[in-house]
Write a structure and sequence with these properties.
Number of strands: 22
Order of helices and strands: HHEEEEEEEEEEEEEEEEEEEHEEE
Shape: globular
Structural class: mainly beta
Helix content: under 10%
Number of helices: 3
Largest sheet: 18 strands, antiparallel, barrel
Strand content: over 45%
Length: about 525
């Protein structure tokens, strides 16, 4: 296997050097036209859709089919070491006239992962708490089917004022096919309305509002041995909390309970345009009134947990158009703060024999802060039509997550931080009816922090320790913090037909970690894509 990796690297480097000396023939490509239009106009990728009509072309669309397989033991605690995914995707920008532009995207994907345990939730990092199997030996196959629809419209009302709206709707069916089974239904929806005012040809500013709603309904079931007992850890954070046996008359794993989350976000965008040569874009967002719960609302239903939080975000980009080159430097930053509470409740039977739920307090279960910053530089040069002969990308990011998980009178602190650096180069060689693309990439990641610091609140005398899951705790910490190198190689052929461009591509991504104790092996991803641009 190592010989294969060395061969790929050896011949890939030789190929890129040989191609680097080849002549480039003029060629237009709708595939690169799609990429270049988004690169040079930040409004097209902004959540504020009011400036969609500013696209240069009247219509740009792409459609593709994907097949992907992942293999290797170096995965996070809830991921699969042997998975297959396939999907279909289409995306379009259409300028209906000089005053109206529309955007649309449709995606479908089907995932099958073998040997999966870990989290019950589809994405544990999007949840306010976690539920995990107490045994990591009960692995089974998990299935996920995703449907996504996005649409937006931007309209010019006057020479200076425009308005827009965008909707992003995702539905996911996620399930485990081995006891203890769970069947999840996820709905994730964003609704955005915005406006932009052009103060001059050089400066414009926008305001928008986004309402986000996410619901993940979880239903547990058992179809196998009914005499076997299954335990689930109610993980407040850092695999620290309580445990629950499946099969009772109430609890987190009883019946179908939704994890509900909603938020409101207001953002300001600004664009400075000094002509075609330089464009500077900045976006500042504040997420407020982020709240939700796990359980059900109502006097006879139980809300087991409630959470609240807020967040800040910044996105900025600097685009420069040269004589035969284009440069894009982008930066982004995210901060979120979330607090989760466990409700204290009891059942109260009224004189009418009606039983209601009475809440008499709540305890903090989790305090979590997440910081994320990223910078990226893209350079495209030696253009032939819309296709650059070279594309270079350099990126660096840093992520940090601080948490305090409490099961009174005990608590656990955790800090996970890691930094990533990546480099990617792409070479396009033109032919009579299309072009060939060879790409190579490399990256490095390293982290640190502390996995778990268990302490006790002052003045307490309890000796009943919280439940923990050390196997997952160790694997997650190693996955984020251990040093690793990443290598990527890709090949693509694009062919021009009369009214569209068709292409086929193959990519190989390989990750090799160092000095792991609880995770073993490497990880590789092979993906094949067939698509067209028109």
């Amino acid at each position: 296997m190592k010989a294969i990796y060395k061969s790929i690297l050896k011949y890939g480097v030789c190929g890129i050097l040989i191609i680097g000396s080849a002549d480039v023939f003029a060629q237009n490509s709708k595939d690169y036209s799609f990429k270049m239009q988004k690169t040079g106009n930040a409004w097209l990728t902004s959540p504020n859709a009011a400036m969609l009509y500013t696209m240069d072309s009247s219509s740009l669309s792409v459609a593709s089919a994907l097949f992907e397989t992942q293999q290797g033991k170096f995965v996070n605690y809830y991921q699969s070491d042997n998975s297959v995914k396939y999907g279909l995707e289409t995306e379009s920008y259409v300028k209906l006239n000089k005053k109206i532009g529309v955007y649309g995207k449709i995606l479908y994907s089907n995932f099958r992962g073998h040997g999966m345990t870990g989290s019950v939730f589809y994405d544990p990092y999007a949840a306010s708490f976690n539920m995990v199997e107490q045994l990591d030996t009960n692995a089974g196959t998990k299935l996920a089917e995703t449907y996504k629809v996005m649409c937006g419209i931007g309209a010019k009302i006057s020479n200076r004022f425009s308005i827009g709206a965008r909707v992003d709707y995702t539905s996911i069916n996620y399930s485990k096919t081995k006891d203890l089974r769970h069947d999840n239904r996820i709905m994730d929806m964003d609704i955005n309305i915005g406006s932009v005012y052009r103060f001059s040809d050089a400066f414009s500013a926008g305001l928008d509002y986004t309402y986000k709603k996410r619901v993940e309904g979880v239903n547990f079931d058992m179809n196998g041995q009914t005499d076997k007992t299954y335990y689930t850890i109610i993980d407040y954070g850092a695999f620290y909390g309580t445990t629950e046996v499946f099969g009772g008359s109430s609890g987190y794993t009883y019946e179908n309970h939704p994890l509900f989350d909603q938020s409101h976000t207001a953002s300001l965008q600004m664009m400075w345009n000094t002509g075609r040569s330089v464009k500077l874009y900045g976006s500042f967002a504040y997420m407020f009134d982020n709240n939700g719960y796990y359980g059900k609302n109502g006097t006879t239903a139980i809300r087991y947990m409630e959470h609240s939080g807020s967040g800040l975000a910044f996105d900025g980009s600097l685009f420069k158009q040269g004589k035969d080159a284009r440069y894009l430097f982008s930066v982004s930053g995210r901060y979120t703060d979330l607090t989760n509470y466990v409700n204290m409740w009891d059942r109260n039977t009224l004189s009418s024999s009606t039983t209601i739920i009475v809440y008499y307090g709540r305890n903090e279960a989790l305090s979590r802060q997440v910081y994320d910053v990223k910078g990226e530089f893209d350079a495209y040069w030696k253009f032939s039509g819309d296709v650059p002969a070279w594309h270079l990308r350099l990126s660096a990011s840093h992520n940090r997550r601080d948490s305090r998980s409490s099961s009174y009178p005990f608590y656990r602190k955790q800090r996970i931080r890691y930094a990533v650096a990546d480099a990617f180069a792409e070479r396009n060689l033109m032919s009579r009816r299309g072009y060939f693309t060879i790409s190579l990439g490399a990256g490095y990641q390293k982290g640190g922090g502390y996995m778990a610091r268990d302490e006790e609140y002052k003045g307490s005398s309890s000796t009943s320790q919280p439940v923990t899951m050390n196997a997952y705790l160790n694997r997650e910490y190693e996955y984020f913090t251990k040093g690793r190198i990443r290598a990527r190689a890709g090949f693509k052929y694009s062919h021009n037909f009369s009214k569209m461009l068709g292409y086929v591509s193959a990519d190989y991504d390989f990750t090799n970690p160092f000095d792991c104790t609880y995770l073993s092996g490497t990880h590789s991803v092979v993906s094949i894509k067939v698509g067209c641009a028109f």
